[in-house]
Amino acid sequence: MTRTSTSITPEEIEDTFERCPRCGTYAVQITDSHYCDSRFTSNLSDAERDQRIAADPYPGDETVAIVDQHAGDAVAYHELDADNHSLCTLQTDNPLAYCTREAAQDDQYAPCQLCQRLRQKREAEQ
User: Is the pLDDT of residue 41 over 60?
Assistant: First the structure.
């Protein structure tokens, strides 16, 4: 079979990669190279998530970051510093998406508890 283009077709992608239903990460199907990081999957009940969202004391129009994942559970939104880096030690291969706190909450993201503790500590020290 001769190809005139080096483009990868959607079928080839589907035959080669699979997307983790828990975290949304793509992995090569035959390697078993992907293991979900439990930090990015939610074990909160709807009631717990709603309680954390309601208890968030910060303005709804502030920008926060979420891990841009299209599958799996919505987890947490992260507080940002002046350079738009998360306050916690968030590490992910997925890109971050930025939105308002209110938009994140509307999408059922709860506040990252570590980010909130770090923010409260910083504000208390100022």
Answer: no
The residues spanned by each domain of the chain are 39-125
Write the CA distances from 71 to 34, 36, 65, 115, integer angstroms. 15, 12, 17, 23
What pLDDT does residue 32 have? 62
Q: Is 40 exposed, middle or buried (0-12, 13-18, 19+ CB in 10 A)?
A: buried
- What confidence tens digit (pLDDT) does each residue in 12-38 have? 877 777 766 555 566 776 666 655 555
Answer yes or no: are the C-beta atoms of 109 and 77 closer than 8 Å: yes
- What's the rounded Cα separation, in Å, for the pair 66 and 99? 8
Distance separating alpha carbons of residues 73 and 34, to the nearest angstrom: 17
Q: For residues 108 and 40, what is the distance between their CA atoms, to the nearest angstrom?
A: 14
The reported pTM is: 0.63
In this structure, the number of other CB atoms found within 10 A of the CB of residue 44 comes to 16
Using CA atoms, how far apart are residues 64 and 111, in angstroms rounded to an integer?
9
SS3 label, residue 73:
coil
